[in-house]
Write a structure and sequence with these properties.
Blueprint lengths: L1 E2 L6 E4 L7 E4 L6 H10 L8 E4 L13 H5 L4 E3 L3 H11 L4 H13 L3 H11 L5 E6 L2 E5 L13 H8 L5 H13 L2 H4 L11 E4 L8 E3 L2 E3 L10 E6 L5 E5 L4
Parallel strand pairs: 2-6, 3-4, 4-5, 7-8, 8-10
Antiparallel strand pairs: 1-2, 3-11, 6-7, 9-10, 11-12
Helix pairs in contact: 3-4, 3-5
């Protein structure tokens, strides 16, 4: 694996020649559901890879386990807006009240040493994953790939995330991959060129939803009527686990 143009911007992964690649929706501290998912698909930690769309933390009961999961060599995640809220607080620019109201009380109630360790590790999360497979290429960002003027190509998005077009474009692009709901709100099916599929989360949907070549995987596992969804990339098979299934 090699970093993209700038550290903590994107991470390129080579084809997985040993096993399967799975992409999972927002976990939100429900790592017990992630463990149940792995049992369901007979996940092989020596061959398979698990990629997450971000928002690993907040709302669920086990957000503090995020450090343990990020240590696994087979587990990869992009940065979500909930990880960004922690980083904003660490930089002194975030709202504690806003974060607490969005499931972040566990972080602010934790010991200082743990908070520092979590913030340091989350800072290393990329904004995007770029993955080659035997059948093509797929990407992962948290909210949506932005559709700025002249920015419909995957490589252009990665370049703008890295700041190659200037600071203002970089900030806007990074904010959109963390927070945007423009595409799904407008049911916009404009394809992202240069990539087969882009997997995202952030906006809860009843079941995995495709708009063009963008697939939304957050099915609200942190809500009583929600569930955790994942997809096996090679086959397109969707795996769901109901809240409390573990």
């Amino acid at each position: 694996m090699t970093p993209c143009t700038a550290p903590a911007t994107c991470l390129r992964l080579a084809p997985n020649t040993l096993g399967r690649d799975f992409v999972v929706g927002d976990v939100h501290g429900h790592f017990e559901l992630l463990e149940a998912f792995m049992r369901t698909v007979d996940f092989d930690t020596d061959a398979d890879r698990l990629l997450a769309v971000g928002d690993l933390v907040d709302r669920g009961p086990a957000s503090h386990q995020v450090l343990q999961w990020l240590e696994h060599a087979w587990f990869y995640s992009v940065r979500g807006n909930h990880e960004q809220m922690i980083l904003d607080h660490d930089l002194g620019t975030g709202s504690v009240e806003k974060h607490r109201n969005n499931g972040g009380a566990w972080y602010h109630d934790a010991e200082t040493e743990l908070r520092q360790a979590i913030a340091l590790r989350l800072q290393q999360l990329p904004f995007a994953l770029d993955v080659e497979t035997a059948r093509g290429r797929f990407g992962v960002v948290h909210a949506e790939p932005p559709l700025l003027p002249g920015q419909h190509h995957w490589e252009e998005i990665l370049m703008n995330l890295a700041g190659e077009q200037g600071g203002d474009v970089q900030q806007l692009t990074q904010r959109q991959v963390l927070y945007s709901r423009n595409r799904i709100n407008n049911r916009d099916k404009t394809p992202i060129t240069g990539v087969d599929t882009v997997y995202v989360g952030h906006t809860s949907v009843p079941s995995p939803t495709r708009l063009g070549n963008v697939v939304y995987l957050d099915t609200g596992c942190s809500w009583p009527d929600g569930h955790l969804s994942a997809i096996e990339v090679a086959t397109g098979k969707v795996i769901t686990l109901e809240y409390g299934a573990a």
